[in-house]
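The pair is quoted verbatim as follows:
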Amino acid sequence: MKQIVLYDATLREGNQTEDISFSLEDKLRITQRLDELGMHYIEGGWPGSNPKDLQYFKEVKKFRLKNSIVTAFGSTAKSGSAVEKDKNLNDLINAHTEAVTIFGKSWDIHIKSVLKIALADNLQLIHNSIGYLKRHVPMVFFDAEHFFDGYKAHPDYAINILRSALSGGADCLVLCDTNGGTLPYEIHKIISDVRRKIDAPLGIHAHNDSDLAVASSLVAVECGCMQVQGTINGCGERCGNANLCSIIPNLKIKMAIDCVSDDQLQKISELSRFVYELANLPHNKHQPFVGASAFAHKAGVHVSAVQRRSDTYEHIPPERVGNTQRILVSDQSGRANILKKAQEFNIDIASHDPLVQEILSDLKDLERHGFQFEGAEASFELRMRKALGEKKRYFDLVGFRVINEKKEEAEPVSEATIMVKVGGKIEHTAAMGNGPVNALDNALRKALEKFYPELKQVHLIDYKVRVLTGGEGTASKVRVLIETGDRLDRWGTVGVSENIIEASWQALTDSITYKLLKDEIKKTPE
């Protein structure tokens, strides 16, 4: 069986993504998760580039990693000085890792225009840098930067780059599509040619500027590359790097390459979400394998089919990558969607019950008015339980008022006053907020926490507003989507109105009602 080495660059190249800046603590936590996944090499950063990376290599030594080897990254020595005195190379050695990776230029325009040295001097620089590192570090990988562009321009020189690295003692020659512009058939042709001329372990490092990094990486493996580099969620400069969350399942499931265990593969969806959370970025729900929509079904025909045989519309069982099948509800839904959602919500309803059609008709009518439940399944569950007579009223609104005040150059101030009735008792309170919706949310919670202390666990995660009828300007109907969470769960609710406060109120009250309902269900004996 073909052996493949997985090399993760999330902590360095992923950290170069626009809008991402991992802290030292983030990098250490991600390292532990990558180790649990079974990653073979973890590129921790460039120890000579910034204090945070230097500190990372000191701190990571305190962890006992079971599967991964932490790798330091840097460049070849600067031209014109002895490698023994080169700060970058000595920083790599002083990181005290079992492996280091250095990159060198493979494309003549970089050598002439950036390094401004002779082509022959570049070959010597690569050879000497690797040779010096090999005297101090057990494993040295060479990233041949811009290799494919360099090969297309001057194939003989690109091959000589690899020969210089190999003669210096490089343990693996990694071919880099640094600009991400090489097509998979070109990758196949060039690597095939390299293998005829170079007898050494090869690796692939692909960027995603042509949206082909995963495909190019898999083609490279098929051509004989044994090391695959990439990042979690494909994060990286510009359009990102090859996405290991797609590469690993394809290698394991589609190509039958046992790069991680079955149990480790089931951690990949969780790892993807974990990295998004630490990066403070929204999850890409449409991401293959690990996204929330990867195994989501909306059309009634699809739902009916997957309930009989999931492989009719799913290329793999979602459980293999730690994901789950989801049945969405929308105006395209049929009876099968409603019954499947009832099953998910632990609602007992027979397929022939007339209420199924009533719920379906209500759903389609609501969506005609602008409601959408694909990201607000808590609101849909409440409506389903209401149709079945199972929805409990935990409170009733007597009334609320929201006041916004703006004075000269000062920041605007919002205050909400609310009166609710709970079990015959009326609670009247007020609260401030940094906006009208925040003030209303604070006032509602303040009024209800006296009766339902568990609401203190609840916090707002996300708040989105979408204009539905743009031609009417500020009088347009809007849809408000709220995501709420507690210590164990998160859920989405929705509201629609021409008045943004009213739409927000609908979503807020659904959110709180859902929290109280699910807590009550958990307490109810089987």
Notes: Residues 500-523 form the longest helix (24 residues). The mean pLDDT is 91. Residues 449 and 456 are 7 Å apart (CA to CA).
